[in-house]
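Archive record:
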Amino acid sequence: MSLPPCLPRCRSLLTAGVAIAQSNYPNKPIRMVVGFAPAGPADLIARVIGDKLTEAWGQSVVIENVTGAGANIAGDRVAKAAPDGYTLLLASLAQLTINPSLYDKMPFDTVKDVIPITQAVFTPNILALNNDVPAKSVAELVALARAQPGQLTFGSAGVGTSQHLAGELFKSMAHVDIRHVPYRGAAPVITDLLGGRISMFFGNITSVLPQVQDGKLRALAVTSPKRVAATPELPTLAESGFPGFDATASFGLVAPAGTPPAIIDKLHRETVRILALPEVRKRFAELGSEVIGNSPGEFSAVIKAEIPQWAKLIKETGIRASD
């Protein structure tokens, strides 16, 4: 059967049309979906990047907060969106690496259904206590927890968040019994921590540091492998007797699988350029975040490497999304 004579020409026109569309990208507003509430770390990071993309390209970047199911609803919405570069996800690394083991059924595949663009920033968590908890160091906190099994509590912004996993990792490495109290977001955790209704919070530095600086909470350590520029006086948990302890919140941009490589490349180059701007680095430093700005391949390798690491801890502790 011979092809209609117009088919090769039609294919050429279609290919040319796609190429023109990619070269003109973006020619309409971009939607950046965030799976967390407004004013939280992910939202603030998305708005900094979105504002600069808007300036650079003259097209609005609209931030859309879609909360629920550990940010899976937001991820699924982006994974199923048209792969044209006009719907992006500002994802937490936990969303992509912890959720697959935490949830019995994921609505999308975090490796196959989205394409990494760049891992933008990481934000350490701070181990912060209510001022009435009589522990001035990590060692004293461990001793107190062992003396009062099941009495101390730690809050988190939800099951499976970096704050939750930091607490579970601490419990596992310190061999202590501390009860987890999940909340819907960081703000109510801090409210209850200040009010003494929970004992501690492995909280995102963006949310916790102002309370520490005002003397309303006591900080003991950071959860990152190295000390943080915003709090150089605070030791790491690794320095405090837990070698290898690493539980940070990291955020990056991803797009639906099938997005043309030319668009992924353009998004990557522009986002990395933005992340390198002195005013952007300064803004993130003020938020307690540090810039990464790696390549799509490097970001993909991080995701694939961390999935089995967190799967092991989740299996050992028996954590489920319904907890």
